[in-house]
Amino acid sequence: MTAPSLLRVPGELLESFGPLQPAVLPGRAGPLTAAARLLAESLLGDMGNRWLHTQGVAERAAGLAGPLGVDADLLTAAAWLHDIGYAPPLVVTGFHPLDGADHLTRNGWPVRVAGLVAYHSGARFVAAARGLSEMLAVYPDERTVLADALTYADQTVGPSGDRVDPDARYAEVLHRHGPCSWNARVDPERGPHLRAVARRVEHLLARAA
Ligand SMILES: [Fe+2]
């Protein structure tokens, strides 16, 4: 499949910035976020709820960076990009964290961004069940507060971009994807993982308040 010319724009934009590194100072979104938003919109902008959800997750992530003391540019960029693997031109394995990370890697994005996308929201549990762990393992699984923040942002924004409780969000996804879905099959491992992430983030947010 030939990629639409629109998909080449973010790569050119990235080149214009030179070698992209996440911003050093926490609390400041920067060029990585701008490029990520452009790429996300080019891929998901006509995908209805997927785009609304993505915008909500990016806004949520940007708001979490300061209180959690993590790199706002890196976190917000990863939030814009976390679901690009759902875009039809990017689908290879059909596992969106992996397909998204693969696209980012092939287009020169920083390895931390690809790793955050690859492992967001307990992707490693689904990858293991689907026999994709080896493919996922080429990306760094950083298991940091920032990675928790990305998962928390994803788990607290519903399908149409509305803010939701993480338990309600998790239940909604399980219901929407059905009892035979991969998410449902790995629920005994992924569910406790997501609840632990939420507890860690909410503990830090309460401490920062
Ligand atoms: Fe998402």
From TrEMBL:
InterPro entries listed in its UniProt record: HD/PDEase_dom, HD_domain
Superkingdom as given in the UniProt entry: Bacteria
Sequence intervals crossing the membrane: none
Matches recorded under Gene3D superfamilies: Hypothetical protein af1432
HD domain boundaries: 52-154
Name of protein: HD domain-containing protein
